[in-house]
Amino acid sequence: YYAARFDDDSVQWFYDVASDGTTFVDGGFPAVSDAGFSLNMAFISNRTCQHFLALAYSGSDGAIHVWTHGEAEWEEFVVDSGLGSYRTTSIDAYGSTILCAYEYPFLDGTGVRYAVSYTCGDSWGLGDLAVPVAGYYDGYFEPAVSLRGGHGAAIAYQGESGEFDPAFYRFRYGYQSGEWTFPATFNQHDLYTGSEMEVLILPPLSLGLWSVAGVYMSLDPDYRTPYFDLTVDFALADDTVFADGFEFGGVETWSTVNP
Question: Partner of 224 at 20 to 30 A CA spacing, among 86, 189, 193, 218?
Answer without folding.
Answer: 86
